[in-house]
Structures are given as C-alpha cells and as structure tokens.
Amino acid sequence: MNITLKNIKVYQSMSEETLCFEASLWIDQKKLCRVTNSGRGGCNDYSCNWKDIEKVDAWCKANLPRWGGSEDTSLPVPSDGYETDLDVHLGDLLNEHIAIKDLKKYLKSRVVLIPKNGTLGGGEFSMIKHPNYSSGSKARVEDLGPWFAKVQRENPSDLVISRYNDDARDAWLKFCRSIK
Fold first, then answer.
1. pTM of the complete model
2. Residue 21 · residue 94 · CB < 8 Å
3. Are residues 79 and 166 both part of a single domain?
4. Which has more pLDDT, 105 or 147?
C-alpha cells in the first residue's frame, strides 16, 4: 500500500502539543480524504468513513516497522516496541516534508555540511553562506562551482550539499532520522 500526503500545509505557530496541519491523504495514487490536526494534542481527524481509515491503520500496524523497541528488559518499554499506526506514519511523513522544505530553504543561500563520521558532534550540521549572497548579489548556483570545490576540499570529513537533488534529499533525511 502506498500512503502519501499531498497539498500539505503545516502551521508551526499553531502547534502546541502536536503538529497543526492539513493535507490530502492518498492511498495507492487515489485521494481517500482530507486529514487535519488542530495541534492541541490528540489524534488526527479524517474526513472520510472511519472504516476506510481502520483498513489503512490495520495495514500500517501489520506492515510498517515497529518503533521504540529496546533490548533492555528493565525499561518500561516492551522489548519489541510499538506498532506503527496510521497517525505515527503520517507524523513521519510530515517530519520528512518539513525536513525537505528546510533543506531547500537552506540551499538558496548556503551549502550544508553534514558530518560523515560525527565530526561536528551528535546531531549537528553546519552551513556556509555563498560568498556573494551576503553582499546582496545573488549569483547563480552554476557560477559558484569553484567556490563549492574549495568548500569540499576544506571540509573532507563532511558531506557538502550544494544543490537539491535525490541524493541530497536522501542524505539529509538519513541525517535527520539519525538525530531523533
């Protein structure tokens, strides 16, 4: 089953205990319903028949990896973790959406450096502004090739992301997941 969110609108300023958002929920390339959360805690609201949501939720619990597991039996968490229900899965999709949006925003005026071997410490990344962006002239990314090469030479232990593509997205999402 392919579960996706489209037309996502996140309202960070209205988020209190949960993420305030609205989106279209698509199952196997077909729109199922609108999903929303007021951001005040609690589960998501779905604008469709609850039986349809129960089917998708059951599929998520049966097929998606469990989370929060621990090998330490003295902890109050079950050793095999918790089922990934539809609300948890949609939370993961929303976090991915926000992370990608952030990366695209960063890359407009900077390069992003992700540590390959933990050189910046746990969960840290850095950014370097394009040399002429701070002076007000916005150079085309294609014209900054020599500068990008210099940044890569000076930061050999970091992955330097200079433009958005599938590889950059995948590396960024992997980094974001590692700091949870």
1. 0.83
2. yes
3. no
4. 105
